[in-house]
From TrEMBL:
Keywords annotated in UniProt: Ubiquinone biosynthesis
Keyword Chloroplast tagged: no
Keyword Signal on entry: no
Superkingdom: Bacteria
Pathway the protein takes part in: Cofactor biosynthesis; ubiquinone biosynthesis
Biological role stated in the UniProt entry: Required for O(2)-independent ubiquinone (coenzyme Q) biosynthesis. Likely functions as an accessory factor.
Annotated SMART domains: CM_2
Designated name of the protein: Ubiquinone biosynthesis accessory factor UbiT
Similarity annotation: Belongs to the UbiT family.
GO molecular function, one term: chorismate mutase activity
Length: 283
């Protein structure tokens, strides 16, 4: 057995120590980012600094090259850290800003939270809204056929471009599950001809998260890497299939999504985030 390899246990213990150190360093960075956010707010300087982010990425890439780490690995870790810093400072988490040559993401900089402010809603009113899990019995009362039609129509609108250019061909003969834990909803989707359909079959890979976190991902107020890193999204089953689907969504050009759906996702995500914050403040 692998566990009996001489010397392996001590090496694994050392790796665990390095992993713990990484988490502690990320926590320290997040605290410093919150301090930076307060300083900027006090000085009247709001928003992200693309120049600063570019400098951070270039410095990390140079250091990674010197110590034998792939620059893209360093960039991935920094993307998580920057996304967490933006979340802590209540900034838009569009990962393109400050990243030279980055892949096009779903949400361009012009669709950030400051560009289209959420209509003002009093915090006291937000606190009256129940958490999503309280709505689960009502949603489960919807006929499965209606749930199926709504999800299939939404997927058809959002993924029309990838469907036409063959990007979704990797889903041929595969089944991907989507679980909304706090709402008790679960679907399995598969590629059937030229459309994604909800099927009655076991999933090969499943993405699980809360209604709010999935909406934040769809509205591009949170990025997938940060949500998976924080265990707010969980991927089970065939990891390769799940990651391929996630990467597709990450690279989906936002401008190809119908304008009305873009606005609905963005505003709905910001409202859900505000409601969750008000609820947690109450409790």
């Amino acid at each position: 057995m692998v566990a009996r390899v001489p010397g392996l246990a001590s090496v694994r213990t050392a790796i665990d120590g390095v992993d713990d150190g990484l988490i502690l360093l990320l926590a320290a960075r997040a605290r410093l980012a919150r301090v930076a956010g307060r300083l900027k707010a006090h000085a009247g300087a709001r928003g992200r600094d693309p120049g600063r982010e570019q400098d951070v990425r270039e410095r990390a890439a140079a250091l990674a090259t010197r110590v034998g780490v792939a620059p893209e690995v360093a960039s991935g870790v920094l993307s998580l850290a920057i996304g967490e810093a933006c979340r802590a400072q209540a900034l838009a988490t569009d990962m393109d800003q400050g990243q030279a040559g980055a892949m096009r993401r779903m949400m361009p900089a012009t669709m950030d939270a400051q560009a289209q402010p959420l209509p003002p809603v009093g915090e006291s009113l937000l606190r009256l809204l129940p958490p999503p899990r309280r709505l689960a019995p009502l949603l489960r009362a919807l006929p499965p056929s209606m749930q199926k039609r709504l999800l299939e129509r939404a997927m058809a609108k959002v993924l029309a471009g990838p469907m036409q250019d063959g990007t979704l061909d990797f889903m041929a003969g595969r089944r991907l599950g989507i679980e909304v834990g706090d709402l008790g909803l679960r679907w399995v989707v598969a590629l059937q001809g030229q459309r994604l359909a909800v099927v009655d079959a076991p999933a090969e890979a499943t993405v699980r998260g809360s209604a709010t976190d999935l909406l934040l991902l769809a509205g591009r107020l949170e990025d997938a890497d940060t949500l998976f890193f924080q265990r707010r999204l969980v991927l089970t089953g065939d990891i390769e299939l799940g990651l391929t689907a996630r990467n597709l969504l990450d690279r989906l050009p936002w401008e190809k999504v119908p304008l009305g759906l873009r606005i609905a996702l963005n505003r709905g995500a910001r409202f859900a985030r505000a409601a969750r914050g008000a609820y947690h403040a109450k409790t």
